[in-house]
Design brief:
Layout: H1 3-30, H2 34-38, H3 41-57, H4 71-85, H5 97-101, H6 108-124, H7 129-139, H8 143-146
Helix pairs in contact: 3-4, 3-6
The protein binds protoporphyrin IX containing FE (HEM).
Protoporphyrin IX containing FE (HEM) binds near residues 69, 94, 101 and 139.
C-alpha cells in the first residue's frame, strides 16, 4: 500500500468518526421528542388544546371552577406545558400545579372528568389512542399536587 492510499484511508476513517460523533451529540441534545412529534408538534398540540378548553368550559362537572379564568391564557399555558412534557422545545412559564390548584378543592372525580375531556378533544383531532395514552400517562403524576379534597 502506498503512502497516499494509506493517508486517504486515515482521512476517510476520521471523517466517519467525526460525523458519527456529531450525529450522536445532536441526538443527545434534542432529547426524545417522539411523543411531541406524534402529537403534531406545537401546532397539533395547540389545536387540540383549544378544543379541550372549550369542552371543559361546557362540562357541568367542572366548569364552575373556570368562571373567572382568562381562557386564552389558560390554553396557551396548557399548550406550553404539554409541549414541554412531550419532549418538545418549549418551556412552561406558568405557576406550579400545587400553587395554581391549592384553594380549588379539586377531587379525583374532577381530575378524571378533566382527563376525559382531554381524551375527547384528542379523539376529535384524530390523535391515535396509543399517543393519547402516552400524554395522559405524563399527566398522571400531577394528580397528587392537584387533588386536595
Ligand atoms: C392533569 C390535570 C390538570 C392540568 C395539567 C392542569 C393544568 C393547568 C395549568 C397549566 C393552568 C394554568 C396555570 C397558570 O395560570 O399559571 C391551570 C389553571 C387552572 N386549573 Fe388546572 N390543571 C389540571 C386539572 C385541573 C382540575 C381537575 C381543575 C378543576 C376542576 C382545574 C382548574 C383550574 C383552574 C380554575 C385554573 C385557572 C386558574 C386561574 O384562572 O387563575 N385544573 N391548570
Amino acid at each position: 500500500m502506498n503512502i497516499l492510499s494509506r493517508l486517504c484511508k486515515t482521512i476517510a476513517a476520521s471523517a466517519l468518526f467525526v460525523s458519527l460523533f456529531a450525529s450522536l451529540s445532536a441526538h443527545a441534545q434534542s432529547g426524545n421528542d417522539a411523543l411531541y412529534q406524534s402529537l403534531g408538534g406545537k401546532t397539533g398540540i395547540s389545536t387540540f388544546v383549544n378544543s379541550f378548553v372549550a369542552i371543559v368550559l361546557d362540562d357541568a362537572r367542572i366548569n364552575k371552577a373556570f368562571k373567572e379564568t382568562d381562557t386564552e391564557r389558560l390554553a396557551s399555558l396548557l399548550t406550553e406545558q404539554f409541549c414541554e412534557l412531550s419532549g418538545g422545545p418549549c418551556k412552561y412559564s406558568g405557576r406550579s400545579m400545587a400553587d395554581v390548584h391549592k384553594d380549588m378543592e379539586v377531587t379525583n372525580a374532577h381530575f378524571n372528568a378533566l382527563a376525559e375531556d382531554l381524551q375527547i378533544a384528542m379523539e376529535k383531532h384524530d390523535v391515535p389512542s396509543s399517543v393519547q395514552n402516552r400524554l395522559i400517562a405524563k399527566l398522571a403524576p400531577m394528580q397528587r399536587p392537584i387533588v386536595t379534597k
